[in-house]
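Review this fold:
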Amino acid sequence: MSQKRKKPEVGTSSTLLKYVSIKPKISTINEPPSPQKLFASPSQSTSDIVVLQNVWVPDNNYNFPNQQIGNQKRKFNIPWLTKYKWLTYSKIEDSAFCKFCVLFSPSEAGYSSNQSLHTFIKKGYNNWKKGLEKFEKHGSLNYHKEANLKADHFMDVMLGKILSVDKQIDKFHHQQTLENQEKLKPIIKTIILCGRQCLPLRAHRDYGTFNIDQEPECNEGNFRTLLRARIDSGDTNLKQHLMTCGKNSTYISWNIQNQIIDACDEVILTKLVTKINNAKWFTILADETSDISSIEQFALCIRYIESIDVNNFKIVENFLKFVPVESTSGQNLADVLLTTLNSCGININYLRGQGYDGAAAMSSKFKGVQARIIEKYPTALYVHCVSHSLKLTLPPILGYP
């Protein structure tokens, strides 16, 4: 008696991930992505939206491999991706998949719902001779149309255009969520204001109960003082929140302040990385320094070209981040620099220049950071930092030791 065959898995994002390259947002962009790294979130919805938004798309110069079909050589045509929005190409398998059906189609279809689905879902299609015919036929199938509708609805929910079913049912919960967001906005804006004006948030007495009806006896710091100023200026949402909240839910503690700062950092970094990768080339500027607690840190900046319009460009230089380092050897600093760029999601293949000071650990031709990086990325040419060269030149000219 033959053993019953196990039905193939259909309708999961990992199926598509196995065959189609994914472009992660801030993940390891220079290494082949893995499901463990890409889909670490416990929510399957997160995986699905990553697949729908970040499937790799070949550019117009991509050289598709030829296949010998009969007496002719045929290959995938890139205009098909524009004509059929559901279509995606796997450079690993040289095959076509339907990203909507992979995620949202049923495991079986047909009049009696006993026909397993394989082509475009479990198995890619690569008979390019009959490509258009097969694409048109797949696009007309009922289960494909249903999967397309489900994908559109899913994206609308995930992008906040419409409410999900559970939120539509629980309107009270949704209203409470909106009210909580309004309560947090003045707190977040105050922290952002301090950051923009380079103001320290906390003082020595930035703790304890926040009494809006009584002036503090000592300096509470800029953050709490600005909150009081907002309340005095008529911010009713903030005043109501601080009057009615519990002592453990004020959202103005040092811990919450740090979490909001980290969230701001993530938003800023995401936008910056997008600009850098869109520029297609960049230069890394780095220097090592010690902070007030004597921890050696690597200060990283990025220099790139930003397009203002079609024929207008400008050179932009942005701070990226501080990175603590345990060793200041050329090898370790080079490893830290490349690891940091990779973890931020910056495509290191676009690296075209390096700018450091003249310290041996940075500029040595054999074991310095610039030499270690050029070994891996030969187009990343090293230039001695002009500002540092000016600093070395001016003191002797002006007569300073």
User: Anything to note?
Assistant: The radius of gyration is 28 Å. DSSP finds 16 helices and eleven strands in the chain.
